[in-house]
Amino acid sequence: MKDPEGWFRAVYSDIPLTTQWDDGSHTGDGLGNTPSSSSSQPHMVFSMLKDLDVRGGHRVLEIGTGTGWNAGLLAHRLGEENLVSVEFDPVVAEGAAENLRHAGLSPRLVVGDGRKGHPEGAPYDRVIATCSVREVPGAWVEQTSTGGVVVAPWGTLYGGEAIVRLTVQGRTASGRFTRSSAFMRLRQQRADRPPHGAYLKGRKWPADGARSTTALSPADVGGWVEQFVIGLQMAGAFWTVERYGDGTYTLWTYSTDTLSWASADYEPGAASFDVVQSGPRRLWDETEAAYRWWEGRGRPGFDRFGLTVADGREQVWLDSPDHPVPAVG
Ligand SMILES: C[S@@+](CC[C@H](N)C(=O)[O-])C[C@H]1O[C@@H](n2cnc3c(N)ncnc32)[C@H](O)[C@@H]1O
């Protein structure tokens, strides 16, 4: 440790600390590296623990051991015999075991794919994931007792993410989103985003695209809640931004099947924006319809949305389970 005081200051700051980049294939010297393990932001860790609402005697399963900090907090609170924590990356898991040993704790640490939970230790009263998911793995619900709680960061492919707090009843789990979050994705649910070249296929823009204009600014769809809401309604869609250095940019939207794309050009202060769309899906029209749906309901924040997981099917709803968020397109 080159700078113990710097590390000490860092761990007592309310920031996330990346401890691994690119699944350990890189040392994290700056540009182009993707964080793949971290010590989460303390504020977020404590908010999620509040959502988890553990009581003495509870058995807890954690997915994503990382540094072992959250596992240590839970083991300290509940007794190390009541905590199981699963980490996919063996090197990260080894580091966590060492960190916990230094703190005088040795809870059950499992190296493996957290999607499977840890059936040997079930049933659990609480399950907490510290990596985000696009789909709640069925094993987490199955391994939680009725009345138990699953807390997990849940996000869409398009973007936007929030913590969901599900109460389990048999094979069904349902509950509301509690707060905005931005976790690293569970490794096996990372997005598969084909490259730009897979869409225009060597043709020059606008290729066969149909031109139109829109009054909805591409800048208006970029907020975290907006992305979440659009992502709920537009399955299999994602976006990138191409910036031109003068404040203008193109928002590109793509379908993962590589059949459809749309470009929407942003210009500061403009009232109308140029759009080009190609393929069987009209992706800008879908984006606009999804945004208008949200606008028409009073621009709800994350806490008005909820999720129900039943027999492997997921449904996000607004205000109550009988108001499912509809799909567009
Ligand atoms: C934000 S870090 C966890 C922070 C940790 N709870 C702490 O207190 O330091 C997310 C962790 O999830 C792990 N992870 C990703 N996919 C996983 C999977 N399928 N099963 C178990 N762990 C996984 C990553 O390797 C990473 O270490």
Give your account of this protein's structure.
This protein has 329 residues and is α+β, with helices and mostly antiparallel strands. It folds into two domains: 4-187, Vaccinia Virus protein VP39 (Rossmann fold, 3-Layer(aba) Sandwich), CATH 3.40.50.150; 197-296, Bacterial toxin RNase RnlA/LsoA, N repeated domain (Double Stranded RNA Binding Domain, 2-Layer Sandwich), CATH 3.30.160. Helix content is 23%, strand content 31%. The protein contains eight helices and 16 strands. A nine-stranded mixed beta sheet has the order 5-4-3-6-7-8-9-15-16. Strands 10-14-13-12-11 form a five-stranded antiparallel beta sheet, with no helix packed on it. Strand 12 (249-255) and strand 13 form a beta hairpin. The N and C termini lie far apart (53 Å). The model has no long low-confidence stretch (mean pLDDT 96). S-adenosylmethionine (SAM) binds at residues 36-40, 63-64, 66-67, 69-70, 86-89, 92, 113-115, 130-131, 183-184, 186-188.
Kindly summarize this structure in a few lines.
The chain has 329 residues and is α+β, with helices and mostly antiparallel strands. Helix content is 23%, strand content 31%. The chain folds into 2 domains: 4-187, Vaccinia Virus protein VP39 (Rossmann fold), CATH 3.40.50.150; 197-296, Double Stranded RNA Binding Domain (2-Layer Sandwich), CATH 3.30.160.
